[in-house]
Structure formats: C-alpha cells, structure tokens
Fold these 2 entries.
Entry 1:
Amino acid sequence: MTIDLTQFHDAFFDESFEALDSMESALLQLDTGSPDPELINTIFRAAHSIKGGSSTFGFAETASFTHSLETLLGELRDRRLAVTRTISDLLLKSVDVLRTMLGAARAGRPIDMQSVADLQFDIELIIVQRDTGVAASPSPVTSRPHADPAPTRDGAPTAVAAVEWLIELRPGPEFFARGTDPVRIFRELAVLGTLKVSADLTALPSCRDMSPEWCYLSWSLSLLSDAPEAAIREVFEWVNADCSLTITAADPVRAAKPAMPSQPPAPAAFALSAVQPSAAPQAGASQEPGSIRVGVEKIDELINIVGELVITHAMLSQISRSVTGPAADGLRSGMQQLERNMRQLQESVMRVRMLPISVVFSRFPRMVRDLAQRLDKQVELKISGETTELDKTVLEKIGDPLVHLVRNCVDHGVEKPQLRSAAGKSAVGTIHLNASHRGGSIVIEIRDDGRGLDHERILAKARASGLVGPNDALSVDQIQELIFLPGFSTAEVTTDVSGRGVGMDVVRSNIADLHGKIEVHSESGRGSRFVITLPLTLAIVDGLLLAVGDQTYIVPMTSTIESLRLTPSQVTSIADGREVFRFREEYLPIVRLYKSFGLLPRARALHEGLVVVVEGAGRRIGLFVDDLLSQQQVVIKSLETNYGRVPGVAAATILGDGSVALILDVADLIRIASRREAA
Amino acid sequence: MTTSPANLTTAAAHSQVLTFMIGDATYGVDIPCVQEIRGWSPVTRLPQAPPDVLGVLNLRGTIVPVLDLRLRFGSTNVQYTPITVIVVVSVLSAKGQRDFGMVVDGVSDVIDISAEDVKPAPELGTSATDSCVRGLIAVAGRMVVLLDINLLIGREFPATATDDSIQAA
C-alpha cells in the first residue's frame, strides 16, 4: 500500500535539475586544477540525491544510471581513481544525459536508452579497468593508514573479508503510507552481499482490527558483505526517522576498519539510531538553509498589490497637500512615514523576485569550453559580478541573447592560437563577462580580446547586400550599428555555431522587449565590447512624463537621449512635409506625436514645444511634444488584459492623481514612422 | 406557447437583468456580468481607437477600456456630465476575464425574468445593435433589449489593432 507519489514529482524534478546544475558547475571547476575533495563531495552528493529520488519515485533507468555514476564518483572521492580529462568529460556527458532523461521522464516521453546505455557502459568500463588494473592510473593514496589493497565497493570480495552485519528494522505504523518500499531496500542490500531476511509478524493484529495502510511488520536482516557500514546505512537513507534502525557488526573490530579508514578502529559494537550523524551535514549541505519554494504567481500577485499601494499612496499624498486645519501637519508627517515604509515594502517584495545573474552565467563555462574545443581555440572565460541580482522575468529572457553574444565572441571574436601568437597576443583568448548595477539599471558587459569588428568587411558586406548605398559615408559608430540589422552576417563560412544571419537583430529586439538597449564598442585587433543596459525589473519603469494636448504620455528613460527646443532655422523640410534636424553628427526625422496619435496639441510650431530625442531598435527620432512634465518611476500595467495591443504604445500606468497614462513603445513608433517614410 | 430556442435558455430558468437607458430605449444586461456602476470620470484616450471606444480608465488598479454604448447605438448628441453613468461589465473570453466599461444615459432598474420571458429579436434594421442582441423582454408594457455582452465585446476589441489604423502624419 503506497500513497500516490506523483504529487511529489515536480519537487523531485526541480530538485534534481538543481542538483545537476550544481554538479555541472562543480565539474567545470574540477577541470581546471587539482581535484578539490569538497568539489568531488558536492558532485557525489548531487548524484546520490538524484539516485535516491529516482528509485523512490520509480524512475528505474535514472536510478540505475546514477548508481553507476555514483560508483565512479565514489572511486574518485576515495582517490582510487585520478580525475583525468576523459573522466571529467564523461561526467559532464553524464550530466547532459541525466538532464535529458529527467526531462523526458517529466514530459512523459520515452528515453533514448541507447545513448544512456552507451555512456553507462563507458562509465562501468572505467570502473572495471581500475579494478583489474588495466588503466592503472596512479592513485595518490597517501593518507590511507592500511597498506593493504583498497577494497572495492561492490565488486568481488578482495583482501578484506566479508563481515556479517545484523540489521534490525522496526518501522513505525506510517512506514508504507510514506511511500517506503522495504522490498526495494532489501533488493539494494542484496547487491552488497548475501542477505537473509526474516519478518517479525508478532505485532500483526487480526484482520478485523487491521488498518490497511499501517505497517505492523518488522524485520531482522543478516547481511554478509565486505561493504563498509556507511554503504549499508546509505541504503536506509530514505527510511523515515520514525523507524528504529539498528545496524551491528557481528565482528565489530574488523567491521570498523573499512568504514573509517583514517581513524583508529572504533571500540566495541555501536548501535546507532536511524538518523546517523554523518547524514545530517550531507542533507544540510544540499539544501539552502531556511528557504521555501513559492509559486511565481503568488509573488506576482504580491507585487501587483504593492503596485496598487504605491498608486493609492500617491493619490492620498496629493490630497493631503491640500488639507488644511489642525490635523494637517499630523497627516502629512504620517504620509511621509507611510512613504518610507512603502518604499521598503516595495523594495523587499521586488527583491523576492530577484535572482542572481549567476543563474544565467553558470551555463557559460561549459558552453565556452565545448565551443572552444570544437573550434580549436583556446579561450578563458572570466566571470565577475555574478551575484548581481535582477528580476526573474528579465533573467529568463536575457539568457538567449547572452548565449548568442558569448558564442559570437568565441566564434568570431577570439582568433585561433597561431593567429593570436602571430599578432603578439597570448595564445589563450579571454572573454570577460561582467554584471553590475548602475543607478536603477543593470549593466551586462561581454568583452573579448579578439580581433574586433572588421569595419571594412562589415561595410563591404552591407554594400554588397544593399543595406547601405554604394556612396553613403558612415561613421565608425554607424558601421558598428550595421551588425544589428536583420540578415547581416560577416562569417565567411556558415558553421553550426554562427553565421546564419539570424542573430544580432534578434538579440537587439529581445533586449528591446525588456526595455533595455545594447551597444557595441570595438577596436580592430584589440577586441570588442558589448554593453547591455537593462531595467532591474519589468514591473516598474523609470519614465519621462510628456504632455501633448490634455494627455500625458510616458517614455522610458532608457529610450531617451536628450530633449531640446528647436529654432525654425535648425529644421529642414524635405519632401511630403517631412522634417529633419541635425543632432550631433546625424540628421533625425521629427515625429509629431499629436499627429501620430490624432490629438489636439497646445504647441504646433516646433519652437513652442520640445523635441525629445528617443532611441529604439538602434534608430533615433526627434519626438515633438508640448512639454516635459517630470521624471518618475511608474508601475507598468498591461493594456492587453482588457483591451488589446495599441500601435506605438507599450503599456499603461496609473499616475498619482489616479488617471491612466500610456507608456510609449519607442521602437514601435520609429517603425511606424519609417514605414510611412518608405510608403 | 412554443419552446424557446436553445441558445436563449442557457441561463438559469430565473435570472436578474440590470436595465438602463440610452436615449428613449431601455436595454438590459445579465446581472452576473455587472461588476459595478460608477459615475463618469474623464478617461485617457487611446490613439486610433474606434470612435465609440472613449479610452481607458483606472478601475482600482486595472486598466479598463470604456465604450460609449450611446455612440455605438447611433446617438449623435452625447454629453458627459456628472450624472452620466459607466456600467462596468466583465466577460470570460478565450484570453481570460476581460472587463470593460459601458457609458449609458442612466441606470433604471433590476428586473427578475425567467427564460421564457426572453423573446427572439426581430431584425431591428441597425447592424450595430443586431449583432449583440440576445432577445427582447416585455416588462410592464415596455420593451427591454437584452444585450449579449460577449458578442458586444468580441466585436468591439480586436485582439490586436493594426499599424495601418495609425493616421499618416
């Protein structure tokens, strides 16, 4: 009788994927130096918890695979095998395979057993080779007090004689109800040696008094095995704490040796309680202390409510300013206190949704390593600022653009070692990934010391594909901007890594979707630098309030460059009543917002209003408005929930007086303006 | 008496209808759809929206579009005064719950009806109303036009507006 375990599956998968992530990151660190025993322990623990979970939840394939993996890791941990490149590659591959297996299991798809079996064979081959001394890698066993050959864990008996273990398992009544299956435990024990089981039926009541879900049985086991006590206890790790478990060695002196090789033999028999002391730190290390899993929708609801509170507060404080009388001072100071609390509340709630960017960065060491190997390059990836936190939604959406950029750096940026040496640079290229906070934004920088952007080639390519006219003179900045155009690629050979001409434009539009922007700075022969600026969160935007007629619009600060008042002499009229003005080195078209949105403005002549230079999708326009009002943080509200998408408008917000203001979608406005131009 | 067509009897046998005035005519909507009734407050215009979509309103933190039913049903002389009323209704669409406000001249009554009170509407001749009428109810000698909110909102708010609706500058 077992309860329905499927309700725990999601938690198991979540935890397993997390375990795989920590395994992978530990493996990648392991690669670069002498093996740190703590790292191997981390990997081992991760594999072990996946194995335990898999067998509990009946994913036999995963359990069997992780068992082999665990055996190999055990060898590494006990220093009977040295960490070689082959082994670390094999382990990384295992992480991939496990990820696929668990992914398939979660989606209920069949698992590609062939690749699993192949890899499992490779792993077992290494273990067997070590056992038989074929691949005699020098095992750096120095701390081992006994000179006798190392005992194998579950192979044939060697120099250490088998010991008879007496195990008493007296479970509590809820043993079965918690999903424990004693048969599975016995089966696992049987692998370790010769097992005899006898069940104690004395507590069994008559059928009438019996509760079908309760466990009335207890067992006495005798196991003849050379396995250390820890290995036997491990089998019982998934047994709940309400069981009484006693493990005694029939011959304690001999039994103590393999279990605790670095300590003097423990005296006399020891009857430990079910919760073995060494298991406690293990479990503790694999779990974040004091954290709980909370559904994202609950957090979003919380953020929404806090957003409402911000608006209500703004409304109240506006009213409180007009209040007079004896209570007015008290009210105003109360409002100030409320504002402080609100700001704290808002920050705390926002922080709940914030995750360190290491969540995204962590995939890059592996990716760069694999890619460099494939492309025959030597690349060192340096990561800094990985603890910088940003909103989960932003984090989820920034992953793909970053992957693309880093991939480009390895593929296009960093040269082959010979070329680098010839250019007087270190043969090993460096890619630096950095994240930092700057004001209310987060700045992610991807920098390489490769060949940089080849301006000549970019320009030639752009001319060839008609993106640039044959006689257009372009500034360096403008040339660098070309790489963000759709369909642009300078890669001579289309590889499976990059060069298919989809990419930088998608990168830019993805980042624009997040209200962010990307810039490129490059120096030929010295490398290039991509700088991404993103808002910390998608729930709030720092905006500039504009007035047109009786309406208020908001343009995100990240899109604004400058605002200026134009005199008629600065403006040139061109065909069809279109107007341009000179801004820094370029001519920008003027878009009159009142015309685009069909409003009655207060200012029609350009010198009566203001022009705000805005940027979106790499292009700039001058947006003509009546006036600038102020700059403030606004809570983003969807228009699409109850209405639909409005061209040129990204979303809406609620201002302090309770009225609704629309947030402009600058990229969309520019797109509409340029379509009109082309028409 | 003949049995009513099936589509008119989907509601419970007895239900309540909120009636309101537009010009001289009385209209009604099912009470369960009605979220609240509020006085007129200025709305924020939506660029290039259909003429009868006045704009959006802040309804306790949610952005709600406001539709002037009077314009929709062909009134030409509409005024917005403090006694102008917005009936906020809510429908369940494929996209989830959608709320919107309807501007009417005034709310009149809540009436109890049973399913057989709803008579199929004859062709009224104006396509604007035809498309969203569920039926007619005779109450105390007066005719109430029962509106189908789902049809009303489905036609009024396209999932996405197109760029072409933006006027050339």
Entry 2:
Amino acid sequence: MKRRVLTVSFGLLVLVLGLRLWPQISPPLKLFPVRTPEEIIASLRGLAAQNPQLARVLTLGQSYGQREIVVLELAAKSQASSLPPELRPAVLVSANLEGLHFLGTEAACRLAKRLIDGYGREKAISEILNKRTIYIAPLLNPDAYSAWLGKWKWERMTNSRPVDEDNDGEADEDGPDDLNGDGFITMMRVKDPEGSYIPDPKEPRLLRLADPKKGEKGIYKLYSEGLDNDGDGEINEDPAGGVELNGNLPHDFEYFAKNCGPWPVSEPESQALLKFLSEHRHIALVLNFSTENTILNLQQTGQARAGADRVRIPRMYASMLGLDPDQDYTLKEIVEAMRGLGVGAGMEITEEMVASFLGLGPAVALDRLDLPLFEAIQKEYKEALNKAGLDYPERRAKPVQKGSWVAYAYFQYGVPVFSTDIWNVPEPKKPAEKETLTPEKLKAMSSEEFIALGEEKIAAFLKAHGAPPNFSAASLLEMVKSGKVTPARMAEMLEKMPARPPAGDEEHPDTYLLSWSDTVLGGKGFINWTPYKHPTLGEVEIGGFIPGLKLIPPAELAEKAINTHVDIYLRLIERVAEIQIQEVKAKPLGEGVYEISAYLTNPGWFPTSTAQGRRAMTSWPIRIKLNLDKEQNLFSGRPVVNIPFLNGSGEVKKVTWTVMAKKGSKISVEATSPKLGKATASIILP
Amino acid sequence: MNLQKVSIDQYGKRSQEMKETFLGRDSQVRREKRASGVESMLRAMFLGENMGGRISSRQLKKSQPPGLRSYRYRRQAIALASLVAFLLLSSFWSKSWSQPTAEVKMSFDHFYNHAELTKALQTLAQTYPQFMTLKSIGKSYRGKDIWGVILTNPKTGPAERKPGYYIDGNIHGNEIQGTEVALYVIWYLLTNYGRNELATRLLDERSFYIIPTVNPDSRDVYINQVSDPDSPRSGLMPYDDDRDGMADEDGPEDLDGDGSITMMRKKVPLGTGTHKLHPDDARILVPIKPGEKGDYILLGEEGIDNDNDGMINEDGPGGYDMNRNFGFNWQPEYVQRGAGDYPFCFPETAAIRDFLLAHPNIAGAQSFHNYGGMILRGPGAKNMGEYLPADRQVYDYVGKNGEKILPGYRYIVVYKDMYTVYGGTIDFVYYALGAFTFSNELDQDPLEAQRPRREREEETVDIRAMLGQQGRLEEMEYHDLVLLGEHFSPWKPYKHPLYGEVEIGGVKKFGRRVPPTFRLAETCHRNAAFCLYHADQLARLEITKAEVKKLGSRQYQIDLTIANSRVTPTMAAVAIQNKLHRPDEVRVEGEKIKLIAAGYLTDEFRGLTQPIKIRQNKVPVENGVPGFGRVNLRLLLEGSGQVKVVFDSLKGGFKSRSITLD
C-alpha cells in the first residue's frame, strides 16, 4: 500500500517536473478564439445601446450572402462638440475585407471599446470624440468569415457569389471535401508517374518541385483535399464562393482574373464600402487591418511608368501649340504653351485638364511629397513594436495587393492610409552570431582554438563555404594537429576559392512554418501524411499545414499584439489635421482703410491633404471667406481665397485683404474644408 | 413623312446605287466630334468655336420664354394629337383583329421628350404585344423610368435562345437624336413584320434589347428647358465641380430669356481686347493676330456669379459623364474626367449594367451619340492594347459596310482616331460581355458634309483654319439661308450685374449637334438600317450535316457540322481568350442514349479527330463557331431509338436535330 502510494507520488513528481521542464507541451495550448459575426455585431449594438451619447450602429450594406455589414459611428454629442458627426473631420477604421483576418476584426472592436471606455477618463480620447467622428467597420467580408466557421476549415477569402471558375456553365459544383474527417482541408499527395514533387531532402514532411538539373525526378502529384464532385476529371476546380473583395477595388485592378471579380467594384460589399466613402467625404484618415502591412512594406503594385511627368504631344495638337511632337514636355510647359496661344478665352487651363485630355494614366507610386509621412510613421511603428516586445518578422510584411482597398484609399480617395496585419508567424531563432565561424574569425584563431571547435562546427563551416569534398573536417583537423597548416593559412585559401552556392541546401520556404508548428503549437499546425483510399485517385496520403496557421496565433500572443496595435492606431488618430485661425489682425492704412490678415494654421501632425489627394482631386483646398457687412467694402483681395494645403505641426499661412470699413465695426473670417471642419475668428477694427 | 421602305431584294441594288452616288464624297473632312467635358473644352478652344467658360454640362431651371414655347408647343400639340388619334385607332384595331397588321404612325421630324417617348412606347407595346415587351429597367436620379424594350417573335423560340442585339441612346443628355433612332428601329421592325423580309427574319431569328434613352432627366431638361447645344451632357445628380464643398450652386442663366444658353461678349477700348469683329459679319468674333488690336473680349456662357466666389458658371447641374463610368478600363476622376467615384455608381449606368447582364445572349450592340458622322469601335484607350485580330476582322467587315449605309460617316477607332475614353460603354460591352459593339456619332456637321474631300494629312491645316475662324461665315450663311435664322440668337445688348454693358447671343441649343428636324428622318432610317445590318450579321447557325454510321450493335458514330453563314462568330476571340462566358455546347438527349466520346473532325478523309473532354452527354465547343465558318464534330454514341442533337450557344442561338438510331 505504502509502496504503491510512494510509486504514485513519485510518478506525480515526475509528471510535475516534466511539466516544468517542457512548458511548451504541458499547458493545453489556447489559440486565439474566433467569435461569430453575430457575436461581433451584437457586441457593437450593445456598446451603442449603453452609450447612446457616443455611439450609433449604422448599416454599411449587405454582403452577397445577405449578411449585414455594420459600421459603428463614434462621436460625442456633448456641449464641447456642437458640430454634427457628419461635419466633423473623421477617421475610418476598417478591418477584414479579406474575411479571414480575425485579429483585425477583434482589434477594431477593441479600439471601439477603448474609445468608449476612455471617454471622460482619458483626456486624449475625450478630445478625439469631442472633435471628430470615428467610424469603425470591423468586419467587411462576413461571407468569407462565416465560411470559416463552417463544418470544416479552409482558407476561403471569397464572398458567396457563385462563380463558374472552370467555365463549364455551372457554378460552385466542385469544392474541397474533408475526406479524413479531421475538420481541416489540407493536401493530398499521390504517387504518379507524371508527378513533379519530391519530399524536401532536409525536411521530408514538406514537398517541393523536383529539379531535373540536379538529377531529381518527381514522385508525387499534389491536390487539395477533396473529390471530383462533378465527374469532370478535375478535383476542387470550382469551389464555393466567388470574389476576393480585397482585389475588387479600382486601383490597379486585375482584369480577367476571376477571383478579383469581373470588373472593379462588382461586388455588393465593395460597393457598400465605396458608397459609404462617397457619402462621407469628411473622412481624413483610414486605418485598416488586413494581412497587408503597409506601414512596414511601402512597395506598390503598379509598374513604374517611365516619364509619367513628361509627356509627348500627339502630332496634330503639337503643331497647333507650336511644340515639337518628338520632344517630351512637362504638363506645366504644355499649359504655358496653351496660355501663350490665348486658347481658352479667359478660362483657366489646369494641368489636370491637359493630363486628362492626353490620356495619361494613374499614379502608381507613393507621391514623393507624401513619402516622408509614411517613413516617419514606419520608424515610430518599429519602435513601438520593439518597445512592446513583439517579435514581428519584418521581411514577411506583405505589401498592398492589386485592387486593394488600401491602395484605393490612398490613390483615389486621397487620404493617408495605414494597414497592419497585427501578427505574423515569427522566424525561428537562428543560432547566435558569435557561434558561427567566419573566415575573419578563422584568421585570428590559434591552432588550439580551431581544434577546440570540434568536427561538427568545422564541417558546417566548410559546407557553408562550398569547400570541395576532399576538404573534410576530419582531415583538416589532422592537418592542423600535425601543424601542416594554420587556421590563418586556411582562411587565405578559402578566400581564394571561387565562391560557390551550397548545393541542394536551400531551405524550403515553409520551414519556418513547420518550425513554428513544432516548437510552439506542439506539432498541431501540421497534419502528418496519412494514407487514404480516394475513390478516383486510389491510394493517396492526406496531410500538410492546417488552414489558418498564419492567421491564428496562441491567444496570449494575440492579446499582446492586438493591444499594442490599438494603442498605435489611437496615437495616429490623435494626429489628424485640423484647421485653426490663429489670429486675425487689422492694420489701419488710413482713415477707414484696413489691411486685414488672417493667420491659418494646422496644429495636427498630418498635412491638411496628401499630395496624392490633391493630384486625385479628392481633397479640398481650405476655403477662407471674408465676411463683410453692407457698409464694409473689399478694396483688394478676393472674397473667397483657397489655400491648397497646410503642412502639419503648426505650419502657418497668411491671407490678406484690404477693406474699407468703419472703425469699431466687426469683420469675421471663416475657414472651411470638408475633411477639416470649420474655424471662425473675428476682429473689431481698431 | 414619306419613309423609305426598302425590301431586301431592292436592298442590294440600293446599296450599289448609294455607293455610286456617294463614294465620291463619302469621306469628307472629319469634323471633330465636339463633346462636353475636357475633350470638348480643349477641342472647342483649339477649334476656336463658341469659346467660353463651359466647364461641364449644365442646364437652367428657368422656364422657356413664351415665344419659343408656343412654337414648340404647337409642334408638340400636333404630334400629340396624331398620337392620341392613333392610340384610339390602334385600340380599335387590336380589338378587331387578333393579329393587328396596322401601322402605328409615328413622326420622325420631332424630338420626343420623356413623356412623349413613354406614350409612344406604350402605344407600340399595346399594339404589338406578340412581339414587344416594355419594362422599366430602373429609375433615373430624378425618378424617371428608364425604358427597356425587348423585341422578338416568341413563336420561333424564346428570346434568350436567339442572338441578341442591344441598342442604347442618349446616355449624354444633350445627344438626343439617338433616342429617335432607337424608337425608329422598334417602330420599323414592328410595323414591317410580314412585309419586309429582313424585318420579318430579324424578329424571328434575333432578340432586340433597346434602351431608347439612358438619361431621361437631362433629355427633358435639354428639350423642355433652357440649355445649350452641349449640355446637360451629365446626369443630374448634384456634383461639386469646383470643389468648394457645395454642389451645383453656380450654373448659367438664360439672361436674355431666349430659351437657350448662349454666349456673352463685351466691347472694350481698342487695344485692350483679345478679339475683333469679323470684317464681313459682325456676328462673328475673330481672335487677334500678333500686332493687331482687339476691341472685344469673350466672357463665356450667359450667367452670373450665383455664389459670390468671384467665378461665373463654375458649378452647374451635374458634372459627370456616364459614358466614362463603365466597368472596363475604368479610371478615376483625375485620369478620366467625369468617371464618378467607382464603376456603375450612377443609377442610370447601374440599370444598364443589370439589363445587359440579365440578357447574356446579347452578341452585338450599338450605343448612339452625337455628332460628327462616325461609326466608332473601341478600344477607347491604348493602355489595354488593341482588340484581338480575329475580332477586328469582324468589326472591319461590319464597319466598312456601315460606311456604305451611312454616306459620309467614317468607320474609325476611338483611341486612335478620336480621343482617349476610359470606362466607356462600348469597351465594357465588348471586353466584359464579349459582344461586338459600335458607337455611332450621329449626324455630320452640315457644313462639313458640303465640303470637298481633303486628305488626312491636311487635317492639321484644316483645324488651324478653323482656329482662325475661317468657315464661320459659311456657318452664318447656313443659319440665315437654310435654318432661316431659327437657331441663332442675334447679339443683343444686356446690362450684366458684374460686367456692365455686354452683348448676348450665339448659336441656340438646337443649332448644332442635333439635325434640323427636316433631316431627322434620314438620320433615323440610315442608322436603323445599319443596326439591322449588324443584327443580321450576328451568328446565324445551321446544322448542315448530321450523318449517322452504325459501328456496332448499339454503337453509332454521328458526324455533325454546324455552319455559320454570317461574319460574327458565336464566341468573340476576347471571350474565348478570357473565358468571359461559358463555351458553346453540343448535347445529345434521349432515353438510353450515352455519349462515349467526342472530337473535332479535323480531317474527314483520314478520319482524324482531336479529342474533346466530354461531361456526361455534353461536348463543350470551346472556340465556338467562327464567322463564315463551320465546326465539324464526330460523336460516338451508345444506345438506340430517338436522339436529339442540340447545339446550344450562349450568343449564337440554339439549333437542334432529331435523329433515329437503328
């Protein structure tokens, strides 16, 4: 009995010790939980119901699958804020147009909660909600999101529109099937004489294309898990769903790519989003969550157009304008030539008109005037990630896609836009720098130090430098031990050898995912290849990475990443441009004649418009209006003056008028712009 | 009206006559189509005509002056009276005969406003219910019905199983005569069924989908209210042209009350002006040459500074261009003026899109505009490349023959021969739907039509000449002697609140771009004839061979030939290349019939075939049937008894043949 108790308790001790020693295995791994769209919408409605003075749920539209898309409007209706929400400068926080970016949806909801909770408690948040309107649309692709919550998991990013992918006259008739019943759609590999895949030599669980140049011959054919449901000989060639919404927007849209839709904005979801923008032109900043990280990766999709700012003029117009059809001109030069010719009869010819007339294309790169903004935010973002201790693999930051929402918001809607993916599968930790051997280190080494390295490290070093096979680690050690060669001499020899890439040694691009699955997820991110009898393919093996591996991290990591990004976005919201009339001055020039000067400023951090917004003609100039009564007369200056823009951080521009008015009378100045709101100031003439 | 009714036999002779009559002058110097928007603005500036601050389409809300109103009203009253009379008559007739053969008389010397158009369409639909379906396909911004007409003879098969031909008109509100042409097509087909062979065949074999006016809002403003020749081109959704945060707050006004928006000019001290009077006609202003002294300035269109921003007429009604709003090669506003925020963001363009998508059998199309006398094809812009060579051949064949039907019209390409258009109707219908689409710029400038032919190389010189105002004298003669002064408003003094003493005058709204009413019927008939010709040139299929050969006890080989006697293929090359729609298909139907294999018969002497992957009893014909060509198939069947072989083409129609296997 005693003995038994002892054994049991010893066993328990071993177990407890074991748990402590291998903490990555022991606690049940909790992945970030995915809420249903209904739960998300209900939570937003709950927030709005509890805070009617702050929040309101608006319907943005309906998905193709008739699911509601909502946007939460946050604007404090208090004494401190008399302007109605639709007249205040606004920020749109959008998330998950791709459908499977669950962290983004959650982060947008958290941001909403954070703003509501912080109102009246945190000064910065109170100020935001008193002065601005924040729109939060946390789930823009409910169809794809809901599909994820179905019977089994697969990464479908499309809405529910039936699309005939294989052009056989029927839609959605052959999608994947969960054959092995594990709840995941993974891959099937089949041995086939025509197979082109082989197991990766370093990591046999992964497959890669055989390279005939290396004497490799393919073994497997690869399919996604499923049946030939329609009996046409193809597997999964026409799955449910149709259009990936984040490729369906009009900037650099990919025509004839079925998954992007038949034309730009063909889908009800993208229409609803752009209609919302058309009806809310006061949105001055877009903060987005998607798998793109456009703060870290500034690369754009379009092909750079050579000489987009210098153009050739078609022959028939060139001769009219007295310009050389074989020479390049800037738009400004063409405008000047036209003015010089007197065409236009007093109407102002602008560069935009000329560009439009000559059929010049759209912008494809971030405007060089806007680039410093993006670079500054990028720098701060990196610092914030570091400070929060987030391990983000920067080189995996995805740039915007063709037809992306982010690209539309910048290039066509013309406002600053930032998108982050919140989290990405981190790179496995490489052995620290000092442990690896370099020729430089070798030069400085004594023979004893070299021998102390041991055969393994030396072999790895030789392999990495492409040393010929006769230079084995063992033979080298012998040579050093016998004094035939010194490490310094060896380093010289190595440097003289032609550099050769290590053969057959490239890491499979998915190695990091496997390593993530093995070390952090306890192997649960990869289904090992297991035999299955397929009705048409015969003996197959089913296995591979689980869907959502790159999208859903462990809950604890997700929490930290989400909270950090909510903070980062809050700080961006604080920086939106503003318009203020700093001062109005009146300088008497003589009896009843005054020079009136208004000083306008932008105390925000962002400029009042982006350069691209001005080019796209979707940002407004600041309109400054001098209000005179009947007895006051304007002597010089225009009654309405447009200032194209003000840079951020307090740039000041002065507007002056000369007026004839009575001493002691009042003159007021008004400055407005849809994305900036309204400012007024007045002066009593001295 | 004495309308030309040409039977099909006479047709060939007539086109020969036309050739002889008009070949000598069928390619007169091109007169640039003067559109609104930037193109026209720049063009107007280059051409030196009707210069002014016209930024975008605009119209006035004021009503017309009594003089003009009474004139037009009398005309409309006559039209209305005759319409009512025939309404009564036709209702009587339709009671008397189950199959009315009565003509509905319609006048084509008249521009129909939306109410008149609605009545005319309803009359036709009531008189010919066996052929015509009339339905509202959507509402305009101001809530007017956009009418869609479907014509076919359902006794010869349902509409969706015949090649479809689509027509729209008047997408630009001021380009009104496209509506009359579309109405004429409907009227002609219906009233000539059973009389004219072509009309009969087309109603039997094709379906027509016709939207007489896409833009009823601006049509009514143009016809019934004050406007100018170039506007309102846009729809009437308010649009902030000058980006001041307000929409449509400063349009032009009919200050002199003549019913049209004309121009303002002002006499200034000699040496301070930019223009001078033409020595032979004081109605014409000529820009001064270097060294000359001017005593006139141009002040743009009639109007005042409604919003006190120091600019006149800078934000009139609307301000966008629905023919830049379509979903192929769409570009944003800063690249393509007037494009709108995103494709199909206007109710009118969305309605057309839905109508087109609901009828995927549409294989040919026409979108009417004015003016300049052109048969246009895309592409509208060069960035997406030229149309595919196989499709270009089809366009060329129809377009070149069109030049014979429309003397003086030139078959040309939008981006190359006119100007760049992103997001236009015709590119969408071709590139996204795979239908062969033209856009006719209706009516030549009457002066151009009278001018002798010039070589293309001289065009630059010609435009320069226009810049120098030559030709304006002829235009005035035309106004005086032919139009009898009806469409020119002589310069009259006016006291402007800002400019002081000015003169107001110029060409009135019907004085340019639309034909004078005495020429409207010819415009209608010739362009309708072109539409009917194009509709007739859509794929016309026939199963010309279905040969059965017994191979085994229950196995049969069928050699099938499907021939197309027209130039249009059943699938455009663009559709094949980009998989725009499902391919054509052969089906075998019958109890206990099983299709075992199928292939293209590539060499009937040696019996070589190229195998086709079949699906159940279906054979996809991935490349369709070429124009003036055929497809030869060899099928291997198992079974016995009756088998029905069906050729089912989305855009080429539906043909079947019953065969007995024994």
